[in-house]
Amino acid sequence: xxxxxxxxxxxxxxxxxxxxxxxxxxxxxxxxxxxxxxxxxxxxxxxxxxxxxxxxxxxxxxxxxxxxxxxxxxxxxxxxxxxxxxxxxxxxxxxxxxxxxxxxxxxxxxxxxxxxxxxxxxxxxxxxxxxxxxxxxxxxxxxxxxxxxxxxxxxxxxxxxxxxxxxxxxxxxxxxxxxxxxxxxxxxxxxxxxxxxxxxxxxxxxxxxxxxxxxxxxxxxx
Length: 222
Description:
Helix content: 40-55%
Number of domains: 1
Number of strands: 8
Strand order of the largest sheet: 4-3-5
Radius of gyration: 19 Å
Order of helices and strands: HHHHEHEEEEHEHEHEH
Strand content: 5-15%
Number of helices: 9
Shape: globular
CATH class: Alpha Beta
Largest sheet: 3 strands, antiparallel
């Protein structure tokens, strides 16, 4: 709503604080689940992707996310150097006059018009500024250094074709594992979205509520 937007605009640091409080609650829940899961296999299914990532920090895992929140940092303990926020993040504000993006946790906002920076859908061109280009550069670097890419929670929609094209190129020489939570999904549908003619390097796995995190963990352990 308009009221929500104005509140976020006027209180960005408060919103960030609330997210950190949420993360603290979830981390406490994860710690309890970790202990309980030693006794109950069923409880292992209640864990989140973030808690699984947190238990695999000894591996050289890089995160490419289209989410704006710092959940990978706060819940999974991944350093921001190992995360590419390809669609921006909370705390980023843009100035239409300067065509510049500011991080309110590192810089002071100018005394003029500014608004939350979101790399919006493809129908409208946003300000594509150095800070955002650096995140895409991180993504490309992560992909170049990686042996395989695991995709979870990303639908490959046409509005994200700027990312889909990069994934398609990656598939030319490396493996992509797509975890599909969509009951109506299929490998053919994913190939169509990526405009793939050769799906040799694409591994398609259907996941459901009762096995999603277990499959994700198994893949990280391979």
